[in-house]
Amino acid sequence: MLTPVVLSGGSGTRLWPLSRKRYPKQFLPMLGGRETMLQATLRRLAAVDECAPPMIVCNQDHRFTVAAQAQELGVDLQHLILEPVPRNTAPAIAAAALIAMKQGDDPLLLVLPADHHIADPCAFARAVAVGEKAAAEGALVTFGILPDRPETGYGYIQTIADGKQGEALPVQAFVEKPDRATAEGYLETGEYLWNSGMFLFQASTYLHELEQKNPAMLDACRKAAEHAMEEKDFFRLDQEAFAECPSDSIDYAVMEKTDRAMVVPLACGWSDIGSWAALQEVMDKDPAGNVCIGDVYLHDVRTSYIHADSRLIAALGVDNLVVVDTQDTLFISTLDRVQEVKTIVSDLKAKQRREAESYCFES
Questions:
Q1: DSSP letters along 201-236, please?
Q2: Number of domains in the chain
Q3: How do residues 260-294 score in pLDDT, each as one tens digit?
């Protein structure tokens, strides 16, 4: 039986000012309606056969938010693992694997970020079934998205050119985010998939590989799990031990170094919703290509994302814009430069502006 591990520790900086450290994007209904991205991730698991109750790893400051959103959805959690400090995905997954094995079990872990969008959950579930077989045989499986454009905002996975959906294929290489010309070349070869950041493997297999590649990280995670405090529904990792853990992603710490990596190609309408441009792309649009949230009036506006929180936004004669109005901040950018919002957030932090991390009306 699969045990889902949902990673909910991200800060969502690239979707500022709506997403902030105190209340990041996974806890918000970024795609409209009432359902948050975390809730959509949990609901998606219903399509996966023989799925155990999920484990969620999150920042300790978000514990009540996570618990409340799972409860609202009627989802029982196996564990809610609290990180006292952020240490990226490799330690978070290691802690979940160690806790999953505490009772002598060795489950297959389906690792999912809490803030991804998948339009076709059934296609996702079919890919998971393919990945299960490879993971049960000792592979560290990742899921590679079949690219439909030369995207420069994602990392890529190189595999064999004649691979098809429905197979787990050997990973040739993980490559960093390319420039436009390189991305176009990747698309032409048919050998490259987008790196989705979703994984499937046996708990013991991951821990064995981590021990080989980064023993100091595993040692710190073991101490943090062994000395963790259980408080009602929460499993709080030991702060001192976890703070000593090196911070690194699973890609750098394990996947790029192992010889057990396999990839399942997947076409499911996936997006990591990593920017305002990505959000604009996946949401329903008007005939002019605009996404409008809230009280918005447009005249002769094209290909824009307009989010009105508490007042009317009116726009005239513009295109390719992002306008996000919250109760304490107004953000305006062209769509092609929204990735640079992280620079604004960094500058605001340096100036100790509260808007960088929380809403000014929060206590």
A1: EEHHHHHHHHHHH-HHHHHHHHHHHHT-EEETTEEE
A2: 2
A3: 999 999 999 999 999 999 999 999 999 999 999 99
Three-state DSSP string of 233-268: CEEECCHHHHHCCCCCCHHHHHHCCCCCEEEEEECC
Mean predicted confidence (pLDDT) in 78-91 = 96
Residue from 270, 126, 265 nearest 191 by CA: 265
The answer, yes or no, to whether residue 252 has pLDDT greater than 80, is yes
Task: Give a yes or no: residue 253 inside a domain.
Answer: yes
247 and 285 both lie in a single domain: no
CATH code for position 106? 3.90.550.10
Given a contact cutoff of 8 angstroms between Cβ atoms, the answer to whether 255 and 211 are in contact is: no
Judge contact between 158 and 178, C-beta under 8 A.
Answer: no
User: For residue 346, which amino acid is it?
Assistant: S
Helices 203-213 and 215-226 cross at an angle (nearest 10°) of 130
Find out whether 156 and 265 touch, Cβ atoms under 8 Å.
Answer: no
CB 203 within 8 A of CB 188: no
Q: Tens of pLDDT along 103-123? A: 789 999 999 999 999 999 999
Q: How far apart, in whole angstroms, are the C-alpha atoms of residue 124 and residue 48?
A: 8
CA 254, 256, 257, 260 torsion-angle sign: positive
Choose the final residue of a domain: 271, 291, 308: 271
Residue that terminates a domain, selected from 271, 306, 326:
271
